[in-house]
Batch of 2 targets.
Target 1
Amino acid sequence: MKHDLRKIFGSFLADGSFLKAETYGSGHIHDTFRITTEEKEKDDYILQRLNSNVFRRIPELQENIERVTNHIRSKLAAIPGADLKRECINMIPAKNGKSWINDDEGNFWRLLVFIPDHRSYDIVDSREKAKEGGRAVGRFQAMLADMPGPPLHETIPDFHNVEKRLEWFEDSVALDKAGRVAGLKREIEFFRERADKVTIIRKLGREGRIPVRITHNDTKFNNILLDENDKALCIIDLDTVMPGYVHYDFGDAIRTAANVAAEDEKDLSKIRMDIGLFGAYAEGYLSETRETLNSTEKEYLAFGPLLITYEQALRFLTDYIDGDVYYRIHHEHHNLQRTRAQIRLVESMEEQYERMQDIIARLA
Ligand code: ADP
Ligand code: GN1
Ligand code: MG
């Protein structure tokens, strides 16, 4: 599908003239383009065609992001030397008065200021970067802790509800829409064996032992931008910011920051959670959140990565079984390859779980 990106860009109140558009980044959900402007001194932009299959209520989602970014900007404005253009997502209003437009085909588009001189990593190769990532997420949660107003919209209902995700998985297995289930016995068994264990965080929530907070819910490391010196800069991809448990954000960041291999690595022998990267991220994260987290949240923090990596593997396999309807794939069996890589990562975490708990106990 070819879109007239120049025309779409022209529907927003951006400063600068359209020079060129290129596809950008390695996100799995939206179609993302970098717009370069003709004038050297003016901002570049990120133009996104939003995935309305994944996000069913985009006006609500955009309202969430407006509230969250306004609140973060007001916090940053009180910090001397803060860079409001680089430390927070800035959405450009459209000429229609909203923060998005619909094109003739009904697609939703939004425009963001391109954050200059940032570094984004799919794989983290040093403890310093992991620690800065932890700081960035901790700071993000702290800034949103006192956001006034009603709860944020749930942009994807039951997003991290692993009990629901297990039900949907079993439904998909039973339906076997794409005829793929016969070859997946080992993988399916992996999830069933652990199904009772992974509900612990939700149980703690139901018992009132851990609070619902505002969380990001998609803290994979390439959604955490670092600056040119690899210092914490900005958390992006705010579509899933909504009520959640801190274990989700800690877990998803460790899933990506502490894995020495790619999320979809084919050679399973290369996949391992690095305990040094785990400890460094945890140190950065707890340096910002030690005072706010309660003792039960801390006690179960190390379980977050096991839960979220399990859930991620389950989501990839469910999508594979459904015939690849959710995540962008780059080849036929990509979702299965991703599943196997994430299963291997869960096993690596299980092997090191006691050390993970010890590290958190020492830092918390
Ligand atoms: P997805 O949900 O598809 O992951 P993201 O919102 O994360 O979409 O955007 C995809 C990629 O685009 C990011 O991983 C990042 O590389 C880049 N990106 C997004 N927003 C910005 C921004 N404001 N400035 C610079 N790069 C950005
Ligand atoms: C998607 O949007 P992106 O690419 O940052 C997904 C996350 C998954 C991730 C796996 C809205 O993240 O939940 O953890 O892929 N986002 C959504 O790489 O489903
Ligand atoms: Mg992203």
Target 2
Amino acid sequence: MINADKALRIILGAVPPPGKETVDLPDAPGRTAAEHIVAGGDIPPFRNSSMDGYAVRAADLKSASSGRPVTLTVAGESSAGNPFSGRLGKGQALRIMTGGKLPRGTDAVVPVEKTKEEGPRAVSFHEPAKAGDCVRLAGEDIPRGRRVIAAGELITPYHSGILAATGHDEVSVSVRPRVGILATGDELVRPGRAPGEGKIRNSSSYTLIGLVRESGGRPRFLGIVRDRKTAIREKISEGLAFDVLLLTGGVSVGAHDYVGEALRRSGVDIRFWRVNIRPGSPLLFGVADGTLVFGLPGNPVSTAVTFLQFVRPALRKMLGRTDIFPVHVHALTDEPLNVKDGKRCFLRGIAREEDGVLRVKTTGSQSSGVMTSLTRANCLILIPEGTRTVRGGSPVEVEFFHDPF
Ligand code: AMP
Ligand code: MG
């Protein structure tokens, strides 16, 4: 049996390079940038005001005080989108709005609250101003030529804003892998059906559909197949048209676990079967004609954990993402943790901050059939291989379901 690190190396080594496509900017968030993108011009594009007030030359207000205010002539107005074309001379001020272009000859803006109108064309100032006050310089956010997104970065809504500001209405992104999901098991029925005696509803496929989507893939549910060798093989040949095929169930050592054999007979090159982890040790991985094939164990928690640990990094790498692995942080465990067999363990945890310290506790029963241990959790607690007990109050490694940073 190989360990989790070796299994990951084998999987990542089999990932093909990402393809590229172009999407319209509104569809960019959640996609992965396929190329570096640089700003074609300065942002902001021109010097402008950050306040509603008066653009002035600071030198004019040097002597201003509440006892001896300085009065300037108002030469006109500059509002956002409607610049003042002239140049300001000594003794002049310009009424200016937030986003309005600063006219030549001025170097500061005094907010309107600090001024007093002295008739239609005069305004007084009661304190000095400093050059640069309330002024946003051209290019102070993004100078022309600066990279605004790197290839392999996840495009966020904030990136979309910057891409728009720098003149991109289309973006080159990596193609989302198509992921076929196949459930195996005589016991499984669709969620809308009442399960007969000894049957259960297929639940794991729906967890996988969501996880694939969250990980940047395009999920397609291929249905439920019975524990019959030929039926499984037929569905596998359908599944091998996808970039990734995820099967659940039938991958262990039970009398009706035919997935491994069916894959082999379908021409899938099995790269490993069984990993030294808990839950999820029956995990199988193979490759056929450019399709990555994962045989995930059927227990809902095992399915989810093996997806997070092995399938998600593969999908991210297929997308060309530079951050393939989730962030790990340390938290203090509220309770002692006992691990039976020294396997690398993934416990479902609830992490929280208390007085500036990150603490974590388990979600209760860690049996791999207990789905509530996942819905109540926000992280996995990682127990390294070979560790059998962790004392209460000691630090453990934690991996959030959604990266906090
Ligand atoms: P298996 O991996 O086929 O040995 O199944 C292990 C356990 O997971 C059994 O209790 C199955 O009934 C259950 N199981 C398998 N597939 C699913 C599924 N798609 N949804 C929910 N439970 C499943
Ligand atoms: Mg089964």
